[in-house]
């Protein structure tokens, strides 16, 4: 877990965040989760649609989610869900103290759907940054039945109205999280000075 001393400035927090898959208890407290989820409300959002939707899953409900999602993946015929893979995923989920299912509510009005998805992604990024700034770890996963309609329906996200985007696993890092070497931004940025020939 990070301490306030290790995250010295907001920019340092942004630059030091990284995904952490192996998590354990404790999860953020209810008061901390309220602050984390409120951070998601500050995302840029064309049309003020607030397209993001979140379902918090914790405690004994995580085992229910594992049964539901892994069973649905197997029924879907996905050959990747071998007994070994299922055992590994169940063990991982059992250790994680809190999941947030992420969905985008689709508005068929004048705001393009891709802009609604970008707003949802921005909201998720705010949540991930808030989790990190509070000293916890998180991992955005699409590996637990995200693309199986049965799972989406069971979570309350009817595919006619929602695009299901996976889960945020949140908790305390289960081991030391070494810093990651990021690429130099200059490899991804140009300065535009006029029409490209």
Automatic annotation (TrEMBL):
Lineage start: Bacteria, Pseudomonadati, Pseudomonadota, Betaproteobacteria, Burkholderiales
EC annotation from Swiss-Prot or TrEMBL: 1.-.-.-
GO molecular function, one term: oxidoreductase activity
Sequence positions that bind FMN: 17-19, 46, 140-142
Superkingdom: Bacteria
Family: Belongs to the nitroreductase family.
Stretch forming the signal peptide: none
Cofactor: FMN
Name of protein: Putative NAD(P)H nitroreductase
Top EC category: oxidoreductase
Co-factor remark: Binds 1 FMN per subunit.
Keywords: Flavoprotein, FMN, NAD, NADP, Oxidoreductase
Positions of the Nitroreductase domain: 16-171
